[in-house]
Specification:
Helix 11 runs antiparallel to helix 16, helix 14 packs parallel to helix 15 and helix 18 runs parallel beside helix 19. This protein folds into three domains: 189 residues, 3-Layer(aba) Sandwich (Rossmann fold), CATH 3.40.50; 117 residues, Cytidine Deaminase, domain 2 (3-Layer(aba) Sandwich); 115 residues, AICAR transformylase, duplication domain (Cytidine Deaminase, domain 2, 3-Layer(aba) Sandwich). With 510 residues, the protein is an alpha/beta fold. The strands form five sheets. A six-stranded mixed sheet has the order 8-13-12-11-9-10, with helices on both faces. The relative contact order is 0.06. The protein has 19 helices and 21 strands. One of its GO terms (molecular function) is phosphoribosylaminoimidazolecarboxamide formyltransferase activity. Keywords: Hydrolase, Multifunctional enzyme, Purine biosynthesis, Transferase. Belongs to the PurH family.
């Protein structure tokens, strides 16, 4: 093969630090080839640059839409230096070889974040840049691809010290380049799906692009590493206003608290979470009273737990919460005075301000079998007025019924919740036997079970749970129904004079 000039093609939208990279390459003997915008920028910094149009012998066309898509450019990148047939084509067509490609793309993500219209979105879809990147990454054995300004220093250092970029670094940069183009394409798909109002929630192909938002303290256990990722076009829905670094478990627990807050709605409400499971839920006239109601359900389990509140935390609420040890407080906001109270009394307490308007439509869960996808919605409220009743209607128990139902819906299946005076008095969660869950809830509630509302997240397969409820003087039962023994369950309710509302909806949570 004839000797060739070492050559670097530079075509970047983000020009951060590119002049220093180009200077280093020039000093190492590389000819710099560039497209119009980048070429002008480098010339302004005193660098000698050859235009791509001069290299290809073909002008930019279609208003700049086509600049680098030419055999003289792509051939110089894709040519395999140890393939005789490739080298013969290089000689025959006088193709200038390219050894380094420096490229980043039109800022589609930033444009999409500005809620641009469809026309602007389409005009900011990069074509030539993606092609250059993929070509150079594919041919990494001979060509260095650089897509991230943070790698400029490494490239120059290795060229100076080794005479070339090492194969190990070229491999790493190639993988990084493929990740960049894959992410770019998935962001385009996501944004255009919204702009074109694509309504298929479960398409045949679901591109997912995730960017690391934070390194977490550790995973479920200290020996496990963990990180938090987010979709590029979506801002993180929370801000941490104080306290220690978040861990994997903190995020899972905080999410359970957010779901509890959303279930409670506009009322002054509180949910207390321990290991992603509610151990207390209540509504009240204000946040302090709701907190006291939730705490009374299981104060031992609440220790070191996560508090979720439906409204902005004020100073009085902060003073009350700061009197006990908790890991996290999650709320729509915190007053300045409340933040100062926590900083003074509980400096390590994590304060999470969560934007409750940010709700995902789809939940993806990775399993050993593959990814599961489902609509991410919680159980709706029962139809208290028009639902199927057995026995006497009890409209005065509606608030207690809703709290019990929401607590059962938030708890892990099988779940039973008892509520009285706007607060849970027992939450049985994660039982493999429903009758065992009823027995535990009644026993935990003790005397508070009398006159309470019992809610079940699933149907009663036998009337035995009704017998236990009757002995505890339960005032009202809510359950989905759907068992082949529903009639036997109804008969047991009539026998023991316990009203029952069939919600007609299951509220399992695994």
């Amino acid at each position: 093969m004839r000797d060739h000039v070492r050559r670097a093609l530079i075509s970047v939208f983000d020009k951060s630090g590119v002049e220093e990279l180009a200077k280093g390459l020039h000093e190492a003997g590389y000819e710099i080839v560039s497209s119009s915008g980048t070429a002008n920028y480098l010339k302004e910094h005193g660098l000698s640059v050859r235009e791509i149009a001069d290299l290809s012998g073909y002008p930019h066309i279609l208003g700049g839409r086509v600049k680098t898509l030419h055999p003289s450019v792509l051939g110089g990148i894709l040519a395999r230096r140890d393939f005789d047939a490739d080298l013969a084509d290089v000689e025959k067509w006088n193709i200038p070889l390219i050894d380094v490609v420096v490229c980043n793309l039109y800022p589609f993500e930033e444009v999409a974040k500005r809620k641009a219209d469809l026309g602007d979105l389409i005009e900011n879809i990069d074509i030539g840049g993606v092609t250059l990147i993929r070509a150079a990454a594919k041919n990494y054995r001979y060509v260095t691809i650089v897509t991230d300004p943070r790698d400029y220093g490494t490239v120059i250092e290795e060229i100076k010290s080794l005479g070339n970029v090492s194969i190990k670094t070229r491999q790493r940069l190639a993988l990084k380049a493929f990740a960049a183009t894959a992410s770019y394409d998935s962001i385009i798909h996501f944004a255009l799906s919204k702009a074109l109002k694509e309504e298929d929630l479960f398409p045949d192909v679901y591109p997912v692009s995730l960017k690391k938002a934070a390194s977490l303290r550790y995973g479920e256990n200290p020996y496990q590493r963990a990180a938090l990722y987010a979709q590029p076009l979506q801002k993180l829905p929370f801000k941490q206003l104080g306290g220690s670094e978040l861990s994997y478990n903190n995020i899972l627990d905080a999410e359970a608290a957010v779901k509890g807050i959303l279930l409670l709605g506009d009322r002054a409400g509180c949910v207390i979470i321990k290991h992603t499971t509610p151990c207390g839920m209540a509504i009240g006239k204000d946040l302090p009273s709701a907190y006291e109601g939730a705490l009374a359900c299981d104060p031992l389990s609440a220790y070191g737990g996560i508090i979720g509140l439906t409204r902005e935390v004020d100073k009085d609420t902060a003073v009350k919460l700061a009197s006990k040890f908790y890991e996290i407080i999650v709320a729509p906001g915190f007053s300045t005075e409340a933040v100062e109270v926590f900083k003074e009394k509980r400096p390590n307490l994590r304060l999470i301000s969560f934007d409750l308007s940010k709700r995902d439509e789809l939940r993806l869960t990775k399993t050993a079998f593959g990814f599961l996808a489902q609509e991410d919605v919680m159980a709706p409220d029962p139809d208290f007025e028009g639902g199927e009743w057995t026995g006497e209607r009890r409209p005065e128990l509606k608030d207690d019924a809703l709290v019990a139902w929401k607590a059962a819906a938030l708890a892990k299946s099988n779940a039973i919740a008892l509520a009285k005076d706007g607060a849970t008095v027992a939450i049985a969660s994660g039982f493999t036997s429903r009758v065992d869950a009823v027995e535990w809830a009644v026993r935990h509630a003790g005397q508070k079970a009398k006159g309470s509302v019992l809610a079940s997240d699933g149907f009663f397969p036998f009337p035995d749970s009704i017998e236990i409820a009757a002995r505890a003087d339960i005032a009202l039962i809510l359950q989905p129904g759907g068992s082949k023994r529903d009639e036997e369950v109804k008969e047991a309710c009539i026998k023991h004079r316990i009203p029952m509302l069939m919600t007609k909806m299951r509220a399992f949570r695994h």
